[in-house]
Specification:
- By secondary structure, this protein is an alpha+beta fold.
- The chain folds into 3 domains: 7-118, Acyl-CoA dehydrogenase/oxidase, N-terminal domain (Butyryl-Coa Dehydrogenase, subunit A, domain 1, Orthogonal Bundle); 121-227, Butyryl-CoA Dehydrogenase, subunit A, domain 2; 239-380, Up-down Bundle (Butyryl-CoA Dehydrogenase, subunit A, domain 3).
- It contains 12 helices and 10 strands.
- Strands 1, 2, 3, 4, 5, 6, 7 and 8 form an 8-stranded mixed beta sheet that branches.
- A hairpin with a 2-residue loop joins strand 9 and strand 10.
- Helix 3 runs antiparallel to helix 4 and helix 4 (81-100) packs antiparallel against helix 5 (103-114).
- The model has no long low-confidence stretch (mean pLDDT 96).
- The protein binds flavin-adenine dinucleotide (FAD).
- Flavin-adenine dinucleotide is lined by residues 121-125, 130-131, 156-158, 201, 204, 358, 361-362, 365, 367-368, 371.
- Flavin-adenine dinucleotide (FAD) binds next to strand 1, strand 3 and helix 12.
């Protein structure tokens, strides 16, 4: 067991960190304040091979694994969560397209993602189908002319305001639950697709999140990714998201720990540095333990997913369940160590706290991850 990172991963980190320090971090507060999505950063990500990090080289990507993607996301999330989320989005789109898409679909979408020309969005959640995604009601019906008509409303769709295409989950036929669900790739300018209410989230405010409304939205038959009845396979396209999303938690938490470690050494109260109070040293130590545990869980799961190890999906759920909660605790503790300064928007901590809170919910809540972990335990240990 060797915990040293290979040279190429270290180089990738260095590139992502430099880009973050020079380009992304300086405008992170701007995207949060204006609620604009940092679309201009797609170009920078593409120039440095980070937009198409897991996209095959023949489509213009870097051909890296999910481990590379987690490392890039971790470094970018230290400075700008909204930009790190673009890398995540592209990796999720790439995973689905590369695993399930036709050659024509790959040719159509993957080069544009790698070049930073557009991003994709994942449209599954509905008003009455959140955690229970298989209860979704958006319907697809064949029009008899080689097309399907989609009708329904999706909500909380990250990047809806800026996405070039959507992976839309819909129900085809009368089969109930998971058996009736399939997914289509729908271009943004398809007649019948429009944006509804724009979300006002507490954090991830550069996420361009909105409702996506489909009214007799006519898509060609070959835009269907898989025939209905393969929901499990479609959802396996989210396995990588379950380590990429924790990768953002890790970057944010580690940055908060770094800021707190610096602050307590320079801030003086009662005639001494805050760092001299043992109670505060223990807070920092607890934060460091959590960050380290996150790191180990996330990279183990990522390495296993990259190697198609049978425990990869289970351990990704463990990584996500732990990281969402632990990262929030770490950033909250960092804010506490900064006192009133931490609560002020002069410093990035309050934005980081609002951003990181999302990861206990989005991409599968902590409770849903725990349900998955428990069912894995029962499967492995049948009584
Ligand atoms: C920041 C953010 C970004 C998002 N981006 C997207 C996106 O891009 N695309 C998309 O399709 N969706 C997206 N979502 C939606 C997200 O996937 C859902 O919000 C999430 O799955 C929870 O669904 P819900 O909000 O309907 O909550 P509910 O399902 O109503 O859950 C409410 C609470 O009950 C708990 N709960 C529910 N069922 C169980 C159970 N069986 N056992 C134990 N506890 C349970 C949940 O953990 C939660 O705490 C996003 C959400 C957020 C917050």
């Amino acid at each position: 067991m060797d915990f040293r990172e290979p040279e190429e991963l270290l180089l990738l980190r260095e590139t992502a960190r430099r880009l973050t320090d020079e380009v992304f971090r300086p405008k992170a507060a701007h995207w949060d304040r204006t609620t604009e999505a940092p679309v201009e950063n797609l170009r920078h990500l593409a120039l440095h091979g980070l937009a198409g990090i897991t996209i095959e080289e023949r489509f213009g990507g870097a051909g890296g694994s999910v481990v590379h993607a987690v490392a890039a996301i971790e470094e970018v999330a230290r400075g700008c969560t909204a930009t790190a989320a673009f890398i995540l989005a592209n990796c999720v789109s790439a995973e689905i397209l590369q695993a399930m898409g036709s050659e024509a679909q790959k040719q159509r979408y993957l080069p544009g993602l790698a070049e930073g020309r557009f991003v994709g969005a994942w449209a599954m959640t509905e008003a009455d189908a959140g955690s229970a995604a298989t209860e979704l009601r958006t319907r697809a019906r064949a029009d008899g002319n080689g097309h399907y008509l989609l009708d329904g409303t999706k909500q909380f769709i990250t990047r809806a305001g800026v996405a070039g295409f959507f992976i839309v989950f819909a129900r085809l036929g009368d089969a109930p639950g998971a058996r009736g669900v399939t997914a289509f790739i729908v271009d943004r300018d398809t007649p019948g697709l429009s944006l509804g209410r724009r979300d006002v989230h507490m954090g991830l405010r550069g996420g361009a999140s909105a409702e996506v409304v489909l009214r007799e939205c006519r898509v060609p038959a070959d835009s269907m990714l898989l025939p209905a009845g393969q929901f499990g396979r479609l959802m396996s396209g989210l396995n990588q998201a379950r380590v990429l999303n924790p990768g953002m938690c890790l970057g944010i938490a580690d940055e908060a720990l770094r800021l707190a470690t610096l602050h307590v050494q320079t801030r003086r109260q009662f005639g001494q540095a805050l760092a001299d109070f043992q109670g505060l040293q223990w807070m920092l130590a607890d934060m460091a333990v959590k960050v380290d545990a996150m790191r180990l869980l996330i990279y183990r799961a990522a390495a296993q997913l990259a190697a198609a190890h049978p425990d990869g999906a289970h351990n990704a759920a463990i990584a996500k369940a732990y990281s969402g909660e632990a990262a929030f605790e770490v950033v909250d503790a960092a804010m506490q160590l900064h006192g009133g300064y931490g609560y002020s928007s002069e410093l990035p901590l309050e934005r980081m706290l609002r951003d990181v809170r999302a990861f206990k919910i989005g991409g599968g809540s902590t409770q849903i991850m725990k349900n998955r972990i428990a069912s894995g335990l029962f499967r492995r240990n049948p009584a």
